[in-house]
Amino acid sequence: MKAVIPLAGRGTRLYPQTHTKPKAMVRIAGKPILGHILASLADAGVDEAVLVVGGPMQTQIREYAEREFGDEFAFTFPEQVDPQGLGHAIHQAAPAVDGEPVIITLGDMLFEHGYGTFLDAHRSLDGVDASIGVKRVDEPSHYGVVDVAGDGSVRELVEKPDDPPSDRAISGVYVVEDSDALFDALAYLIDNDLRGAGDEFQLTDALQRMVETGSVLGTFDVEDWYDCGRPETLLEANEVLLASMETNGAGALTDAVVVPPVDMGEGVELTRSVVGPNVSLDDGVEIDDSVVQDSIVGRNAELSDVNLKESIIGDAATVRGEPRNLNVGDNSDLSL
């Protein structure tokens, strides 16, 4: 089975972080988002990956994937030159997939449980051509939605409907046995210019086309997922992933306190500071006279005299506060 990961999106919801890197290359809990995805796929036994890339920063994805995971995956990198939606992105992978079964996962989604769990759930379904990870949500109109018949098969799929047919939201992971049927459906949409929500070619609409032409689709449950394309859920995913890791040592620690869990890259220097919990520090970070909690700090960033919480600091950024000298009396209540 091959993995298909669309990575050509511009990541506008993560600006300014994604002005200089693809969103899949934003680092959380020790590695880029893409690294967490590929590590989980490798654990599930997948060893071929089709990464759909695009835009001027795609080289970062190619180089990282081949450098860090070249021994675990055979990679191909089809290019989406003109982004026209998720369905259009997946369509670019057709020659590389070449009729084989695929697991499709979005390049900005992380899941609390690994892909092996999803593949096992898919294999437990009888006679399906594809299956879709779903979760019940309170506001299904914000998502792609699946309506399921009494026998468990998918009856209808619709993207961000005003009047949702169910509360089962599509979670962003798909397993497709009959990939030829999927790519035929995508080609039908594109050849006939049948654009869906956002005036784009939607994967949801292609899956609906599969249902209409006789394919049998099933579903499996996804307990929790994290949309790392938004700052607040990026920080939430960082916290969840750090909880399963051991705090590592810093390159230099001077009168500093580390409150687990914290992930530190190479060459990190902490001086007269308190860092943690739930902090991810990339290589070369320097923090002086500061308190940092629940945050992500990029490579070679410098923080001095700041008190940060729930923050994202980009690579090589410098953040300086203003040092204060205080003489505070008994029973004082002071906020700074």
TrEMBL record:
Nucleotidyl transferase domain: residues covered: 2-241
Query: Could you tell me the keywords of this UniProt record?
Result: Nucleotidyltransferase, Transferase
Q: Tell me, what is one Gene Ontology molecular-function annotation carried by this entry?
A: nucleotidyltransferase activity
The UniProt entry, under InterPro entries, shows: GlmU-like, NTP_transferase_dom, Nucleotide-diphossugar_trans
Q: Which segments of the protein form a coiled coil according to its record? A: none
Q: Does the keyword Nucleotidyltransferase apply?
A: yes
Q: Which domain of life is it from?
A: Archaea
What name does the UniProt record give this protein? Sugar phosphate nucleotidyltransferase
